[in-house]
Specification:
Number of helices: 20
Number of strands: 12
Number of domains: 2
Radius of gyration: 26 Å
Distance between the termini: 22 Å
Length: about 475
C-alpha cells in the first residue's frame, strides 16, 4: 500500500467515520430533518450532555477527568472548512501527488483518481462529530439529533480523555517514512475509543436504538465511502475494525490498564495489530533502509538519450567522441527533467495484503502470503515523461514465508498486467555480475518490466522498469547497499 492511503487515515484520527457501516438503520425509517431549535438552546443542551456523557465515559474507560471539555455544534459549512484547513495543514501537494502516483501504479486506484477530492467527499459525508486536540474542544454536527448521538459523543470524549492523559498532539506530526507504524497507532487510538463507545451503549441498550433511529433521521449516507477504491476504504476502516479487535484482546487480558499502557509502549506495525500476540511478545519489525537510486536512473536516461543519436565513428575519433558524448549526456541530464524520488515508506503486512488481494481476490490466500512479514521499505520514482518505478525490499520471518510472498506477488503481477509475458526465469548474466539468486521472475508489461527476486528470507521488487534502464545495476545496488536492523 502507499503513503497516499495513510494520509486519509491520518487526517481523520479524531473523527468518527463510517459508524453507519457498524449500525444500519432499518430501510423503513424515513429521512427527516431534525426538529428546529435555536443555536443557543442547541449549544446549551450539548454542554449539558457533554458533561453527562464525559462523566460516564470517564468511569467506563477508567480515566479521570483532568479538566472540563468545551463543546459546541457546527454547521456543515463550518465542518467542511475545518476539514479543508486540516487537510491543507497536514498534507502537502507533493504528498498528495505521491499518493496518487503510487496507488495508480500499484493498480489500487483508477487512472483518473483524484486523491484530495476524494478525501473531502468522504470526510464531509461521514463526519458526525470530532474532538480537536489543538483546542481541546468537542464539536457535534448541528444537523444531528443530540439524544441519539450520545454514542458518538462517548467515542469522541474518549479521545478527550486520551488527550488529557496521553497527549494526542504528539501524534500530529508523525516522522516521515513509517506510515505503517502510524496506522498502527491510529488503530490504538480509534480501537480504544470504539470499545469505550460499545461499553457505553451496552450500559443502556436503548441507546443503540436511539442511535440507529438518529442515523435514519439525519440521513447519514455512505455512497462516497463505498465508491472509494477498496484499498483506501478498507484502510479508512482499519483503525476502527481491526483496532477494536486488537483493543479487545488487550482489554480481556488485563483490563484498561493494558490499553492505557499501550500509549506508552505503542504498537509498532500493522502486523502487531493484526496479530496481538506479536505485540504482547514485543516482536518488533525489522528496520529496512533502501539506497536512493535516483542517480542510477538519471544515468540510464542520459545514456539512453545519447544512444539515440546515430553516429558512425572512425577508430581514431572514438575516444574524442566518447568524451564529447559524456559531456553531452551530463548537459542533457541537467537541461531536461530527470527522475526524482517521490516517496520512501513502509508497506507493512496490511499494505502487502491489500496489494495482493486487489488482484488475487482471495482474502485467505492474500492474508497467508502477507503473514510472516518482518519488515520492508519501498521507494517511488517518477521519470521525466511520467514513468513510475517502484523499488521494494522486504524481509520475512522465515524462508518459507518469503517464498509464499514471492509466489503470491508473481501471481498478482500476472493478474495486474493482462498480457504480461515472462522474459526469463534465470539470467546467466546475473552469475557473471555476482547476482546469483535462488528465484527470479522478470515480466514484461505495458507499463514497464517487473522483476521479483527471492534470496533466502528477503524479496526485492522493481516494478515499472523502462527500456535501457540498467536493471542489474539497480538490483545490485539494492542488495548491496540496503540495511536491515532489528
Amino acid at each position: 500500500m502507499s503513503k497516499g492511503t495513510r494520509l486519509l487515515t491520518a487526517a481523520v484520527a479524531t473523527i468518527v467515520l463510517s459508524l453507519a457501516g457498524l449500525f444500519q438503520p432499518p430501510a423503513s425509517w424515513s429521512q427527516q430533518s431534525p426538529r428546529a431549535t435555536t443555536t443557543a438552546s442547541r449549544n446549551a443542551a450539548l454542554v449539558a450532555a457533554t458533561a453527562e456523557v464525559l462523566k460516564e465515559t470517564s468511569e467506563i474507560r477508567q480515566l479521570a477527568i483532568l479538566r472540563p471539555v468545551q463543546s459546541s455544534t457546527q454547521s456543515r459549512p463550518e465542518i467542511e472548512r475545518m476539514l479543508i484547513k486540516n487537510l491543507d495543514e497536514e498534507t502537502t501537494p507533493a504528498q498528495i501527488h505521491a499518493g496518487e502516483v503510487t496507488l495508480k501504479k500499484l493498480g489500487l486506484a483508477p487512472s483518473d483518481f483524484q486523491y484530495r477530492a476524494l478525501m473531502l467527499r468522504v470526510l464531509t459525508e461521514q463526519v458526525a462529530g470530532y474532538y480537536d486536540p489543538k483546542t481541546g474542544q468537542f464539536h457535534l454536527a448541528d444537523w444531528i439529533d443530540l439524544d441519539g448521538q450520545r454514542p458518538i459523543m462517548a467515542h469522541e470524549l474518549t479521545h478527550a480523555l486520551q488527550d488529557q492523559h496521553f497527549n494526542l498532539r504528539r501524534f500530529e506530526h508523525w516522522p516521515k517514512g513509517d506510515s505503517d507504524a502510524e496506522l498502527a497507532t491510529h488503530a490504538l487510538i480509534e480501537g480504544d475509543a470504539t470499545l469505550a463507545m460499545a461499553l457505553y451503549v451496552a450500559n443502556n441498550p436503548l441507546r443503540a436504538l436511539a442511535f440507529l433511529k438518529s442515523l435514519g433521521t439525519m440521513g447519514m449516507a455512505s455512497q462516497e465511502l463505498e465508491k472509494a477504491p477498496r484499498a483506501l476504504r478498507e484502510t479508512l476502516l482499519f483503525p476502527y475494525q481491526q483496532g477494536t479487535d486488537w483493543t479487545k484482546t488487550l482489554y480481556k487480558q488485563a483490563g484498561w490498564d493494558q490499553v492505557s499502557h499501550a500509549f506508552t509502549s505503542l504498537p509498532q506495525s500493522t502486523e502487531q495489530i493484526l496479530h496481538p500476540e506479536k505485540y504482547l511478545a514485543h516482536e518488533a519489525p525489522v528496520k529496512v533502509t533502501l539506497p536512493d537510486i535516483t542517480s542510477l536512473l538519471n544515468s540510464s536516461s542520459a545514456a539512453s538519450r545519447s544512444a539515440d543519436i546515430p553516429v558512425r565513428l572512425s577508430a581514431q575519433r572514438e575516444q574524442l567522441w566518447s568524451e564529447r558524448s559524456h559531456r553531452r549526456a551530463n548537459h542533457v541530464q541537467a537541461a531536461r527533467p530527470t527522475w526524482k524520488r517521490l516517496d520512501y515508506d513502509v508497506e507493512g503486512e496490511w499494505g502487502f495484503y491489500l496489494i495482493l488481494d486487489e488482484f488475487l481476490k482471495s482474502p485467505a490466500e492474500s492474508r497467508r502470503a502477507a503473514a510472516g512479514w518482518g519488515g520492508d521499505r519501498f521507494a517511488v520514482y517518477e521519470g521525466p515523461k511520467g514513468e513510475v518505478l517502484i523499488a521494494s525490499l522486504s524481509t520475512w520471518d522465515t524462508e518459507n514465508d518469503a517464498r509464499e510472498f514471492f509466489e503470491a506477488y508473481v501471481k498478482r503481477t500476472e493478474m495486474r498486467y493482462p498480457g504480461a509475458t515472462q522474459l526469463s526465469a534465470t539470467d546467466p548474466q546475473n552469475r557473471k555480475s555476482g547476482l546469483e539468486t535462488q528465484d527470479r521472475r522478470r515480466l514484461s508489461t505495458n507499463e514497464g518490466a517487473v522483476t521479483i527476486e527471492l534470496r533466502g528470507n528477503r524479496v526485492a521488487i522493481l516494478e515499472g522498469q523502462q527500456e535501457r534502464v540498467d536493471e542489474r545495476g539497480l538490483l545490485k545496488t539494492i542488495w548491496a547497499q540496503s540495511l536491515l536492523k532489528p
